[in-house]
Fold each of these.
Amino acid sequence: MRLGGGKRRRVAPKPYVVFCALVTGLLGLLLLTFRPLEDAPRPLVPFARASEFNVSSSDGGTSVEGVLAFQRVAEKACKTVEEMGEDFGKGVGMESLRVRKIIENHFVANGALRVRDFPPEQFCRHGFVLGKTAEAGFGNEMYKVLTAAALSVMLNRSLIIGQTRGKYPFGDYISYSNFTFTVKEIKHLWRQKGCESKYGRKLVMRIDDFNKPLETNVLCSNWKKWKQPIIWFQGTTDSVAAQFFLKNIYSQMRIAAFNLFGDPEVLGLRPNVFGELMRVLISPSEDVDAAVNWVIGGGENPDISLHMRMLMNRSGRAVQAVLRCLKKAIRSQHLMSSRPKVVLVSDTPAVVKSIMSMPNISEFAEVLHFDYDQFKGSMSKGMRISDFRRKDWGSAPRWVAFVDFFLASRAKFAAISGAHRRVGTTYAQLIAALGAAYNLGDKSGSRFLFFSSFQSNLLRDGLKHQVGWGHVWNRYAGPLSCRNQANQCAFTPVLPSAWWDGLWQSPIPRDINRLASYGIRLSGLGNVDSNSLKSHCKKRKNIVRTITFKL
Ligand SMILES: *[C@@H]1O[C@H](CO)[C@@H](O)[C@H](O)[C@H]1NC(C)=O
Ligand SMILES: *[C@@H]1O[C@H](CO)[C@@H](O)[C@H](O)[C@H]1NC(C)=O
Ligand SMILES: *[C@@H]1O[C@H](CO)[C@@H](O)[C@H](O)[C@H]1NC(C)=O
Ligand SMILES: *[C@@H]1O[C@H](CO)[C@@H](O)[C@H](O)[C@H]1NC(C)=O
Ligand SMILES: *[C@@H]1O[C@H](CO)[C@@H](O)[C@H](O)[C@H]1NC(C)=O
């Protein structure tokens, strides 16, 4: 079985060349009349790649019709979401354990517990990465912290969690590991150890903004050589930014990124990096944990979590599709006979209601939900429901999203993401990632699965509408995604792809343009022209933005 082929190993085809290849392939096939198709010599370029141009428009003789027929038999020109997801149905335990070791060793070596006791000379030479957030949506903000953590691993620097007015990000609901520093403590240590006064080293922070394609050095600079004590990689709201280092022009950076994220071309073997990082970095606050345990009620953890991001829409189709997906998840994990516990999380109360009141769902599952009105814990007092971003986040008070998050990540076997429009948002990705990490014991046997549920009306134009980089299927949204698909329930990667390296990944025009602004020439089928990137990097102005902390 193919685990997502590598495009770099393929020749970028010119239409005419592919056409010839098709004809040659056909002639070869005719000569080998009785050989089964699987054994037919496969041309370098898979036929799917021919979908970009119109084969039948060439001088329509019989041979051309023959080619088309062969193409249809040999390989479809597009894939459904379920077909695309076949790479992700096996779990990534081994790879994730490898990365878990790297992360644990990193935080032991570079954790605050050790580094704050460094002798002054060593401490003042040490490097840090800052993870800083604003209080926007949890998924996006958490990815900022996690990107900083990933970068700290790649650069062998310590991690600082940025505070705002003395408070950690979402500090009322989340606790951070004692491996991390705060800026306040670094300033204190910098003074105390005389870094500036004795060693002449100012506390300088270099800022690189990922959202400014013309300024960011994510692709064109060797960050391992940066001398500033602190680095802040700004604007990294999803899994993509950290993975840009996979394409950095310096092999030292690429190797560091590969070491952490795995080979982006081997889709089925990419470790659960963000889940493993969360597992060591964050935990629910006591209040949130109490609410989670209140829902679970002293029993076993839930088996499956089901997240429905509905933006106040109560689409019956989404609900129907997700029920089918739930059944597939139950079958995939062999839970048919046990009436599994399913925890339901949604921004839209009406959808929770309609799922929980389905007449026959209770025949095959026990459905749980956090009903915050009924909860009498400390957080429920004095919390007003604000209208701020109500459409986006739902009508429940803010803290409920954190209870839902940690509740859903307790699932033992699977997470399912359903949506009115955007399937596999950052919030859903992080639920699945943390769930997978919690359930990966010290052995690699666990096979936590992540599913995406698409109702057919979301797929009329294939995955084309999964436009945001924060959405897990964005990398598949291009021309290789079939139009008019039936409902889909697809295995989904716990580490979203940031590139289009897999055989069936292809970009939408918007992403080709966006990559162009970063200096990357991306073909319609997702190939990166690395020569053009090198020359782009040579030509561009090197921008260094820093600030110096007053001690
Ligand atoms: C291919 O070309 C033929 C003839 O020019 C045209 O009728 C057909 O619509 C084209 N198909 C696509 C998919 O562009
Ligand atoms: C990484 O940092 C730690 C702690 O500062 C240090 O002991 C170790 O030698 C470094 N490793 C590499 C490969 O630079
Ligand atoms: C740091 O956190 C770990 C894990 O939560 C805990 O076991 C340990 O005691 C803590 N160490 C210190 C010095 O607080
Ligand atoms: C809900 O979504 C469906 C399907 O996308 C759409 O037809 C309908 O208008 C939406 N309803 C509301 C109230 O937004
Ligand atoms: C629930 O019952 C209806 C009607 O009896 C049936 O059509 C449907 O398939 C059932 N759904 C599930 C999820 O079992």
Amino acid sequence: MNLLLLLSLLLLPPISPTQISVSPKTLSKSGDPVTIQWSGVDDPSSLDWVGLYSPPNSSHDHFIGYLFLSNSSTWQSGSGSITIPLINLRSNYQFRIFRWTASEIDPKRHDHDHNSLPGTKHPLAESEEIGFESGRGPEQVHLALTGQEGEMRVMFVTHDGRESFVRYGPGPNRMDQVAGTRVGRYEREDMCDSPANHSVGWRDPGFIHDGVMTNLKKGKRYYYKVGSDSGGWSITYNFVSHDGDSSETVAFLFGDMGTATPFSTFIRTQDESISTIKWISRDMQALGDKPALVSHIGDISYARGYSWIWDNFFNQIEPVASQVPYHVCIGNHEYDWPLQPWKPDWSYSIYGTDGGGECGVPYSLRFNMPGNSSEPTATRAPATRNLYYSFDMGSVHFLYISTETNFLQGSSQYNFIKQDLESVDRKKTPFVVVQGHRPMYTTSNEIRDAPIRERMLEHLEPLFVKSKVTLALWGHVHRYERFCPLNNFTCGALGFHGEDWEAFPVHVVIGMAGQDWQPIWEPRANHPTDPIFPQPVRSMYRGGEFGYTRLFATKEKLTFSYVGNHDGEVHDTFEILASGQVLNGNRGGDGAMAKGKEGSTISWYVKGASVLMLGAFIGYVLGFISRARREAGLGKTWTPVKSEET
Ligand SMILES: *[C@@H]1O[C@H](CO)[C@@H](O)[C@H](O)[C@H]1NC(C)=O
Ligand SMILES: *[C@@H]1O[C@H](CO)[C@@H](O)[C@H](O)[C@H]1NC(C)=O
Ligand SMILES: *[C@@H]1O[C@H](CO)[C@@H](O)[C@H](O)[C@H]1NC(C)=O
Ligand SMILES: *[C@@H]1O[C@H](CO)[C@@H](O)[C@H](O)[C@H]1NC(C)=O
Ligand SMILES: *[C@@H]1O[C@H](CO)[C@@H](O)[C@H](O)[C@H]1NC(C)=O
């Protein structure tokens, strides 16, 4: 062997024997599965991984997500396969296999769970590109009320912004009415900071379409599809139009849900969101032809600057959001950034980088809530919208507010809230429900937010008390907690002993729909049933389980219930009469006590739901249960969660 040959053998990289293939090559729509297959991995290690790349020319470190090859049961043989659903990101995907070694673990590069991000020094193989069929129509369909009778807004995403329409009508074969759509989008330069404005987090968000179906008859089922003849049409969806003459209200409410990805990525995602959407779908099926509402009060997708998380989120909620209006308010994880325009002196401990540089832009453009509240961003980015608004549905007046922008006396938001609460027609809507992201009351150890709670108590609580707000719902704390009717930390009389009751607002924290990360209310060894944060008298119920809440109201009575994701059952429930009196809102330490109370009013739909469960949903549920917090279902009241988020 001559020297030259030896040298060249040393200098040439060894030809990697690793093969990777992906099938199918073309997917038809988001959620379709793709199988990644590999072979020839020499000396396989549990740190070998495959990265997902979109667009396919992204640099090695800018993956969308990753999976360890050890997820395949045969990985030790050097070959294996993984099947995952893919979301249409409007550009092709490529998959790359890397070797990563323990000595290359960089403790400074990690995700929110302190998992080190995998290294890309040793690429082993790259797949061909795969993509989505064109002409299959838009995706990410979601509805919203406009605030006008006889209307329903529908929003969706296309890859090219071509002229698109909504076709709708009273039957799947009678979609004779047509509405045009307005198109909007946002650019990388609109993002305020990284990762949102950096190649690691930014991806083209596509074009956002916004159309309004009009002249809808009250309380009727409508069928619709979106798209165009040239770009293709979506599947046919349906919804029940709202009925201004009905006094019934059905709503599903929660905060802080997020989304679940089938791969690991740069940030924590929320597996529990699968369960939340699943149980709400069950309830919606059982509702039959009644209109309903979904309310997601801040911390929506938890994208925090990683663009594809928004795509994932809208695909995940579509089965619900294409059938009932999906209403939102803004949370810190949509907005919060260092140069935000409203950042008074007292708030420096509160506001940071929770929005990942998005500065409210995706939130403002991907949703379109009623009213036209907006605040300038003080950058080239479009104004922040969907801040505060209200509408009536049945016997409830819903008011949504922003805890992220100015709400102090003298601000335009304060004036709106005051004027709105003062002008409610209580004969028409005996109940008033206010919703915002950061809580006015919580017994969780939320030290960072203390200054904002003080301002909310000082500026907003007097308005709520004076206007006899029925319910104040908050997110942000990833727990369920219900308070007595409250004014300035004091419980109002309930009127059970002949005294006058005081119709103070009942505050409920409902941020338990998906995101983890909360200090625990854990029992001490010698006090197995006592939480670590003492539960003051005003806190009537604290739940440690993920879940959502249901609101059911007639002209006479509003029933509010907390459903746990671990079993799909009601764990806390109370009723409020039109007079403002709170019934059976007793202190309930654990879920068992409260169970069944909801029965009187809406057992019909819970029962119907159970029947459905046995049918259509059973396969899904079985599949789900393996991921669920099974231990929780076995009677544990406390779910240990991860460390506190600041
Ligand atoms: C990938 O390709 C697109 C268009 O072909 C180009 O605009 C973009 O800069 C490329 N990205 C990288 C990281 O090379
Ligand atoms: C891969 O393995 C991890 C860790 O065991 C698990 O959390 C994840 O769900 C698995 N993913 C797939 C697609 O199997
Ligand atoms: C992202 O925004 C920050 C803050 O405005 C800026 O300093 C940075 O240069 C931007 N990065 C990119 C890649 O545009
Ligand atoms: C929209 O804003 C204008 C002024 O900026 C106001 O006069 C109007 O009432 C607002 N419309 C709604 C629906 O809130
Ligand atoms: C709330 O209660 C505290 C102490 O009990 C009292 O000092 C304060 O003035 C009260 N605030 C209002 C607005 O009544």
